[in-house]
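Cross-posting from the modeling subforum.

Setting up a comparison between two proteins and wanted a second pair of eyes on the formatting. Protein 1 (sequence, then structure tokens):
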Amino acid sequence: MTYTMPSDKCPYEINWEWIEWPHGNFHSFIGGDMVTMFPNKAANDIIFFFFHCHVNKIFVDWRLTRQTRSQRENDYPADLADCENSGHFRNATIRLKNIDGLKNDYTDNMYEYVDKPNCTATTDCGSRFLFCDRSNDAPRCLSKVRPGGNCKGFPNADICYNSTCVNDVCVVLSTKAATITATSTVKMTEKPSTTTPKITEVPTTKAASLTEKPTPTTPKVTDKPSSTVKPTEKQTTVTSRVTEKPTSTVRVTEVPTTQPTRLTEKSITTTPK
């Protein structure tokens, strides 16, 4: 921790790499409520909480690797009015005391942080939002650049998110859109090819059944004597199952025929006039 509001009389020189300063630069970069200090509106921006979770992680990692358990709770900059606002003094209160924020209770009982993403000369960061910067001696994971952003200085890195670095700008190429269009076309042509056989199969089958029948029927001769058979007319209606309406009518007419009288075995006795 260091002094963030030093005056000319403060005996400590500013080190711009102290975490308080990059923290402030991030507020300025976001702008809006994040940079409004009087009145303080930074917490109105939802990103404020995500951002400070990350700032706190950096601080916790430093404490766990550089300080003893006792130092973590007790080391606090001296109260110097020439170097900081009195609201930052050790025992100044914001309901809690500032120094209460150094308690080990937080990481003992409330939360812990996983290791930050890392990469090597042969492994990536394991996230689609990060890329491995191998331009320095020690590879490190950095955020990818959004489409339209500046990707200059990383010629061999996958620096652009869902885009490609073209002339130092992340550009979205149209290859993906073309692939989607081609796929849609194939799907549209598949359906007619599978349903067409079903339409032609039905009429073919029914046509065969229509030609098998009808045939003229011969009237049955009765055992009883008769001179003639009364002409009758039958009407057969064949309905197509495809259209569900009568499509053709076959009319069969029986031609009247005269049948000889069948003789019985007994003799016929006639009486003379």
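Protein 2 (same layout):
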Amino acid sequence: MKNRIDQQLDKLSREIIAKGGLQQPTADFKSNVMYAIERLPREIDNSYDPILSKTAWVLIVLCIMGSSALIYFMNVESTGLMNEILETLRSANTIEWSFRAMSWSSPIVYAVVIMGGLTAIQFSWLKGKYQNSLGV
């Protein structure tokens, strides 16, 4: 019985396919679709939205400065690491510390100068490239 039902379904499907035929796309179907896609209007949005706004940066800087001032001016009598940090901050004004007093080897000086120059060149080059990509 099942075999007969399968044969009838097969016969019915063959008749439907023979009557309706198989639809095939034309030879230039792909080019027609690509042409239609190219004609669609494009909106390019290259606006830059920073992750943190200027207000957020101001608040972050104010919090850091406030925390630093609080640590520096607060007279906390403690032992351990906090006491050492406070003493270092308080004594920073009395110690005359300069780069001239330190001895720098020539390769380090050359490396710092060259890397600084290359970084400046890279930043200016990348900025120009970014502005050109935006069309500014």
